[in-house]
From TrEMBL:
The chain holds residues 329 to 613 of 613 of the full protein. This is EAL domain-containing protein. Residues 24-277 form the EAL domain. It comes from Paenibacillus plantarum. Keywords: Membrane, Transmembrane, Transmembrane helix.
Amino acid sequence: RAKEKGRNDFQIFNSDMKSVSINRLRLENELRRALVNEEFVLYYQPQVDIGSGRIVGVEALIRWNHPDKGMVMPNHFIPLAEESGLIVPIGEWVLRAACKQNKTWQSEGYAPIPISVNLSMRQFFQHNLKGKIRHVLEQTELDPQYLELEITESMTMDVDHAIQSLLELKELGVNVSIDDFGTGYSSLYYLKKFPIDKLKIDRSFVRDIMVDPNDAAIVATIIAMTHHLNLKVIAEGVETEDQLKFLYQNRCNEVQGYWFSPPVDRLELEHMLRYGISVAAASRE
Ligand code: C2E
Ligand code: MG
Ligand code: MG
Ligand code: MG
């Protein structure tokens, strides 16, 4: 009986493994097709100056407009894209599309603001990243000061590589921020050595600032530290007015989150660029 059961388990395990790898292969092929057929789209989430309520930046976030499945979120395909290496051409598409869109907004007369683009691990370790980004900036004629690249702490674990790459990016004149700050490896010693411009406080800390005194202390401390290090700071995932007030009182510069707006398509973002975000005014009374 034990033998039988063992064999069954083995078979189940086997067929599971098979279907997992078939699904992966299918998804990988679909991602390749998506690149060719231009099924990816960018959504944009405003970054808001906490004092004035003005939009001072936007983060570009990829979506996959799948012919059958509809809008697919990045968490469903970015990890596999990263593993398979497809993230490199996908990331290049994102970079070019974001720079092009930002240049178009400037040509149309919108007040110039930086656009943030998430870099993947593979992109950050790519040979001649600086040259590739310079090429995109030249092609799209976007002034480098209006491009911000987001990296995560895990990409800075090879400290020498990180410093070298970041220096090269700074030579281009682009801005660099550390995304999801606080969730990964972070050595305060190296933080001051990295030529970065901004920390993005991870959503997980912001979520509980009103209920968890530890998270409140961590967020207040990160903000104070950025002021001492002369870095900008933005809080991610701001969803409530109370969170906003806490961040304001603790001198956070910028905020991003559903309280202001989720990521939206180009037309909705343009509407906000023109008329402002209505909730922002109400929340500052
Ligand atoms: P991220 O870079 O940390 O982006 C912020 C994510 O938080 C976005 O999810 C956004 O919709 C979500 N968010 C913003 N405000 C709030 C809020 O108030 N509450 C909650 N619950 N969530 C909020 P999204 O668009 O699904 O992206 C998820 C992740 O996928 C991104 O996290 C980023 O790591 C990755 N990603 C997105 N676009 C790209 C891309 O073009 N390239 C690469 N390499 N990664 C990307
Ligand atoms: Mg990001
Ligand atoms: Mg983030
Ligand atoms: Mg995040």
